[in-house]
Amino acid sequence: MNKLWWSLPSPATFIEEVVSQIRRGNNTVLALPDHLPPGIEFACRAPLGLDWAWEHVEARPIDAPQRHIQSQYLSGNDVAPKHIAEKLATSRTHRNHIFWLHLTDPSDWLNWVDFVEEYSLVRESQGVRSAAQFVIILQGEAARKLPSEASGIVVRKWRNVISSVDALLHATHLYPKKGPYDIQDQLNIALCASVAMWDPDLAKTIMGDLDDFLKIHPPYFDI
Question: What is the per-residue pLDDT across 120-135, written as a single tens digit (0 to 9) for each?
């Protein structure tokens, strides 16, 4: 079901833009609302195939981000904290590596933002397009404070992405009866799409208890 959501026309276009930024070698921050279903990582990863290695970075490490990066990914390198960003940016071992960081707590992002902005500037100054990249999901409250694009980080916001066509396609797929649809079915689907709009969980809830929902919101059409 989540795979279907991310393949809808507008979410798919959003993912294509994210993948394009990754292929250009940009560190990328995605500002997302809470209501999106899981699956964005798979949606981003699938088009990239085996060209990139994927690293899942711990959102709340015990050590400071610099030390965490050093201990987890630069083991054997005794590097001063101020040089860790440069060491990662020039590491041949981590060429074409995606460092995927998914944050929902604003305090976790505050812990990471200075290092990420520093790394982006250092990486850009090195001019190595295949150097390790950060793709950071800031979801819900964590998306309130976004990094400066002056640091070389590309920010993409999920804003007014879902169209009425997406909502209708999603509701049609969730509808318990499979076509052909009579006029009552079409009205039921249209009603679900208009109520749920951009919220896939609400659409799923409505379709999961459709009979009770229709008792409250009967979409009858008298001819």
Answer: 999 888 887 889 999 9
Cα distance between residue 129 and residue 95, in whole Å: 9
CB 86 within 8 A of CB 126: yes
Q: What is the pLDDT of residues 69-120, one digit of tens each?
A: 988 888 666 777 788 999 999 998 999 999 999 999 999 999 999 999 999 9
Cβ pair 57, 94 in contact under 8 A: no
- Enclosing H/E stretch for 133: strand 133-139
Q: Which two three-digit tokens encode residue 80? A: 């001063």
Q: How far is CA 115 from the centre of its chain?
A: 20
Verify cis geometry, omega within 30 degrees of 0, for the bond prior to 65.
Answer: no
For the chain, give percent helix, strand, coil, nearest 5: 55, 15, 35
pTM, entire model? 0.84
